[in-house]
Amino acid sequence: MDVPRPQALRQKRIRQGLYGLAAIVAVTAATVALSKLKAAAPSVEFGTLWPDTVKRGPMLRDVRGLGTLVPVEIRWIAAATDGRIDKLVVLPSPNPIKPDTILVEMSNPELQQAAVDAEYQVKAAEADYKSLKVKLETTLLDQKSVAATVGADYRQANLQAEVDGKLAESGLISNLTVQLDKVKADSLNTRNDIELKRLSTDAASEQAQLEAQQAKIDQLQALYSLKKSQVELLHVRAGIDGVLQLLPVEVGQRVTAGTNIARVSQPSKLKAEVKIAETQVKDVALGQICSIDTHNGVIPGHVIRIDPSSVNGTVTVDCSLDGPLPQGARPDLSVDGNIELERLADVLYVGRPTFGQPNSTVTLFRVINNEKEAIKVPVKLGRTSTSTVEIVGGLNVGDEVILSDMSRYDNFDRIELSH
Fold first, then answer.
1. Which residue spans within 187-269 are E strands per DSSP?
2. What are the strands, taking DSSP E only, across 177-255?
3. Is 419 helix (H, G, I), strand (E, B) or coil?
4. Alpha-carbon distance 272 to 334, whole Å?
5. What's the pLDDT tens digit per position in 357-412?
6. Radius of gyration of the chain (CA)
7. Range 78-102 burial, b when 16+ CB lie within 10 A, else e
8. 342: pLDDT strictly greater than 70
9. How far, in Å, CA of 279 to CA of 304, rounded?
10. In the beta sheet, which residues pair with residue 344?
11. Between the chain's N and C termini, which has fewer beta carbons within 10 Å?
């Protein structure tokens, strides 16, 4: 017969509890250990990456931008007067034109009639001048005749007085006769002076009247010249050697004075307008050396103007072209501009990574173990250029780093490189 054993049952339950507790501790310890394990390093194909080696030596700082060739001299030709477009003589083309080449013919009947009226007014004023001159010359001749007669009478009376004076001394005539002769001579002398002054005054009056009439002619002549030149300006001419770029008018269109009719430029004198990112233009200055790539040759030049404002995140920089234009260079041709900022003599540098601003700290993957793996290292950047960047700290000469965008591996401190 079985005998109950309570002591054995209690020990069995204790053992089962200890086994359960040990299992819980083991599972917890395994979970903690697994959580502390680092993820396996990802494998990256080395041929898909962009590596570069850190170097020491001279470094060129420059900025680049896209741009176009534009004429240095562009002339907008505006209508000098109101009118109607009758004919487009020349259409926009690369063919050269001369300063006297007629581009557009216009008409303005009112202006043309005004020019004819002004011409006839000049002719009428000139006829009046001639008529006045004849009239004044006739009056002056009459006055000269009167003055000559009075002068002759004075000289005759004076001679008579002298003769009678001698006769009176001989007692042949009375002294009264002599005194009457002197009175007559004095009277004629006074009248002679008056007539001479009147002759001088008439001559001056004639000159003044003729000058006044001539001034009227000159005024009408100036008006006629103005109207005539305005009629001539209805034939719109180029004004400079160049090519006709734009003709924004149509036959039959009425235009007012000041309306732009044509744009003429000189294709042989071009400059480059380069668009530089507003974040990079702060170091650009006047006179800096630049090179313009037309994709058919590179032209040296220098910076001549920096636009004070930015448009769509870029600033326009004008570069003068110091070398000859390659074949095929023409206005509006797309070009690449490269502006040299400065030359650094002896610095540590590497190719510019896809991210990172000047004077900042970034993390790059440095290639180790014969290009079998790469580890993440902090790198302090200095001054930047278009394709290179100065290394201030974190790398040494000969270090090979990956410049590609590695943001997908931000959670890994190491990657394996496969070949």
1. 235-237, 242-246, 254-255, 260-265
2. 235-237, 242-246, 254-255
3. coil
4. 9
5. 888 899 999 999 888 899 999 999 998 888 899 999 999 999 999 998 888 888 88
6. 53
7. ebbbbbebeebebebeeeebeeebe
8. yes
9. 20
10. 59
11. N
